[in-house]
Amino acid sequence: MAELEFFEKVAARAGVPPETAQSLTEATLRTLAERISGGQAADLADHVAHQLRPFLARARPEEPQVFAYDEFLRRVAARAGVADDVAERGARAVLQTLHRVVAHREFWDAMSELPAQIRALAEPVPRGA
């Protein structure tokens, strides 16, 4: 999936303009890369558009940082310059869009490193919820 198409999908899922979707995508991928191992981040990067890969790159193959759901969303909101509720919708949209471009097993291998509350952002919201 091309970078522009990725942003369009995120914008539609999160109900935000394309420019905001771009900021949310970059912020979410950077925050995700901090929270998962360098190997898992590299595996995800192999599946996204070339322009998105730097956001999943880690300078060193260090251990992932440990932080919970609230800090994950705080970092996304601060990086994207959006309110907390927009950060939550955006992170959900980015992770769900990412799942569409990454092989199912590889995606869930990476998600398995996350706490359940963050991992739940990647799961489809049941209809009517």
From TrEMBL:
It comes from the Bacteria. InterPro entries: DUF2267, DUF2267_sf. This is Uncharacterized protein (DUF2267 family). It comes from Micromonospora kangleipakensis.
